[in-house]
Write a structure and sequence with these properties.
lipid metabolism; Rossmann fold; 26% helix; AMP-binding_CS; EC 6.2.1.2; single chain; eight-stranded mixed beta sheet; alpha+beta; globular
Length: 530
């Protein structure tokens, strides 16, 4: 039974001090004819013996192309067999695989940070044309020989491998698979004897809810043990779990035998060989059980650090190796963890800590509410105020008094409702609202994966709006935008400018006309809860 907001997983299951490659070798020897992977869409089915053979062949091919231990290889694109193949092939050869996002629109700071020597991707996925995107940062590829790229923008990049096409300056994946001969296979076997489970094997970029991407660097030991301990606990095909990229990633996980409440309201209990505690994010002191605070984790699973970023690594990993997750959570007397929200999302209103997720969860129980996002807005009196943006269900209407009555005695009571005036729709800067002492919401989603320039124009030029004025005014019933559909909560800019994704029916028409046309469908309602 837990008495403090601190838990430690059992030590009964020993940690594995092996590399990813060693685990594959042993599994292929034990279960050579068992299916390892099935990619139904691509018609790919591999046994462990077949998979190991192709992994070794690909690893030898990478060595033949000139890659060596410690080099970084970027894997860019959707889930495919070749992604798994390259993950294990790079691990066998001591090369570090860098995971790039499917919809990344440019090879920017991420690739600069890690210095990828090679890049692997398909010709396209849906609307993404990867080769064309590469040329934006590396135009030299078109006039280069395969393996001989010399880029001013990406100076470390020399080799590009394509999965399903062969375009100028690139190798085809088949060429890589055929490049390694017996000498490269011998080189691979010798190299494998030098690998340590504590060396990096994977870099995954993470930015959380704020900040620029950071390259979380994971070791063989991180990944192997996390996978093993998850497997030891997993007893059904679907399971609730919690983790972060920086923790390999899973740290809390439920048991198949957990009761309904634990399965639906918690993320489970701590995994073996892992510790967790809850501290007050302001004082750094432990909090009592069932009291919200920042969740911190320690154990084998904690990453080596952010690649080439010592300063930000020190911000999140203490001298005694506690990783600060940035998540607000509680621990109960049985060691089960509840995730409440993010530290950076926490609203401090008149000295009181308010967690947006708790209010959002409550408002979601209203029968007319489809989606809701709660954010903090700057206030001269209280420091911050609570603002809820609500999107109603189709065909529903809801008056301010309905929301007030629903919230009364349970959460913050909405006292102010404001209808967005049509006159502000053409406003593209916040300066015109200075006299009204308004809180401004800007809609800024430059990273949305839309390819049509007109759609980009709509997304990036949606006007700012007055959400809260100095006096109370009536508002019309209707829907409101929410950022929940993107799974993100974004705060951007200097003066707490909060960015919320608009529900707009995008079409290639001028921005002002498109936004005006979409207003009746939105029926925008903003509630500022005092």
């Amino acid at each position: 039974r837990v008495t403090d907001s601190y838990v430690q997983g059992t030590l009964d299951i020993p940690l594995i001090n092996k590399t990813v490659g060693q685990c594959l070798d042993e599994t292929a020897e034990r279960f050579p004819h068992r299916d390892a992977f099935v990619f139904h869409r691509d018609g790919v089915r591999k046994t462990f013996a077949q998979f190991k053979g192709e992994v070794d062949q690909a690893a030898a091919g990478l060595l033949a192309l000139g890659l060596k231990k410690g080099d970084r290889l970027g894997m860019w694109g959707p889930n495919k067999y070749e992604w798994v193949l390259m993950q294990f092939a790079t691990a066998q050869a001591g090369i570090i695989l860098v995971s790039a996002g499917v919809f990344i629109s440019a090879l920017g700071k991420e690739m600069d940070t890690v210095g990828c020597k090679a890049l692997v991707f398909p010709a396209h996925f849906k609307s993404q044309k990867y080769y064309d995107i590469l040329k934006q940062s590396c135009p030299e590829v078109e006039n280069s020989s395969p393996g001989g790229i010399k880029s001013k923008r990406l100076p470390d990049l020399s080799t590009v491998i394509m999965l399903d096409s062969k375009l100028p300056g690139t190798f085809h994946m088949d060429e890589v698979m055929q490049a390694g001969d017996s000498s490269h296979m011998k080189q691979l076997r010798t190299l494998q004897q030098t690998l340590s489970c504590n060396e990096p094997v994977n870099i995954q970029f993470t930015s959380g809810t704020t900040g620029s991407p950071k390259g979380a660097t994971l070791s063989h030991r991180n990944i192997v043990n996390n996978a093993n301990l998850i497997g030891a606990r997993l007893g059904i095909s679907e399971q609730v779990a919690y983790g972060t990229t920086e923790n390999s990633p899973v740290t809390f996980m439920g048991f198949p035998t957990d009761n309904f409440t634990r399965r639906t309201e918690t993320v489970g209990s701590i995994l073996p060989h892992t510790e967790a505690k809850i501290e007050d994010p302001e004082t750094g002191k432990p909090v009592p059980l069932n009291t919200p605070g920042e969740l911190q984790v320690r154990g084998y699973c904690v990453m080596l650090g952010y690649w080439n970023d010592t300063a930000r690594t020190r911000e999140v990993i203490s001298d005694d190796n506690w990783y600060k997750t940035g998540d607000i959570a509680t621990l109960d007397e049985h060691g089960y963890c509840r995730i409440i929200g993010r530290c950076k999302d926490m609203i401090i209103r008149g000295g009181e800590n308010i967690y947006p997720a708790e209010i959002e969860q409550f408002l979601h129980t209203h029968p007319k509410v489809e989606e809701v996002q709660v954010v903090g807005v700057k206030d001269s009196l209280m420091g911050e105020e609570v603002c809820a943006c609500i999107r109603l269900r189709a065909g529903q209407s809801c008056a301010a008094d309905d929301i007030k009555a629903f919230c009364k005695g349970k959460v913050c009571l909405p006292l102010l409702c404001a209808q967005l005036p049509v006159s502000c729709l053409a406003t593209t800067t916040s300066s015109s609202w200075g006299a009204a002492k308004a809180v401004i919401f800007g809609f800024l989603f430059p990273d949305l994966p839309f390819q049509d320039p007109a759609l980009h124009c709509v997304c990036e030029s949606v006007p700012t709006h007055c959400v809260r004025q100095g006096k109370r005014v009536e508002r019309a019933d209707g829907e409101a935008p929410s950022a929940l559909s993107s799974g993100r909560r974004i705060k951007q800019g200097i003066n707490w400018t909060c960015c919320v994704q608009p529900y707009v029916s995008f079409s290639p028409v001028p921005c002002d006309k498109q936004w005006r046309a979409s207003l009746p469908a939105l029926g925008l309602m903003a509630l500022s809860c005092l």
